[in-house]
Amino acid sequence: MSTLTKSNHIGRKISRIRELRDMKQEALAQALGTNQQAVSAMENSETIDDDKLAEVAKALGVTVEAIKNFSDEAAINYFNSFSDNSINQGPIGNQNICHFNPLDKLLEAFEENKKLYERLLEAEKEKNAYLEKLLEKK
Hints:
Protein name: Helix-turn-helix transcriptional regulator
Strand content: under 5%
InterPro entries: Cro/C1-type_HTH, Lambda_DNA-bd_dom_sf
Distance between the termini: 118 Å
Pfam families: HTH_3 (PF01381)
Number of helices: 7
Organism: Flavobacterium soyae
Keywords: Coiled coil
CATH superfamily of the largest domain: lambda repressor-like DNA-binding domains
C-alpha cells in the first residue's frame, strides 16, 4: 500500500499565490528587479533560499509563512466559509450596488428643482404686485 504525500513545492505555491493575486510573471519580475524567465525558473524550483523567499513574499504582499503554509484546499475553504459570497459582502470586496435607477433619481431631483423655481417665481410676482400697489397709493 503506497501513501501519497504532498510535496512542499515552494515554486508552485508562489505561482498559485501570484495567480490568486491576479499578477502576471512580468509584474512579479518587475517588483523583484529581474526578468520573466527568472520568475518562471523560480516557480519551477522546489526550494528557494530564505532571502529570495522574503523578497518574493514582500512583492506578493504576503508573509513568508503564508507562502510556506499555502495550500489550494485551505484557500478554497477560506472563501467558501462566507455565508454570502456576493461581491458586496465580506473581505472580498466592498462595492456599492445601486438598488435604484440613478436616472430616475436625477429626474426626480430635476422635477423638484423645477417646482422650487416655480414657487420662487410666484413669490417674486406676488412681491412685485404688492410693491406696485404701494406705489399706486402714493
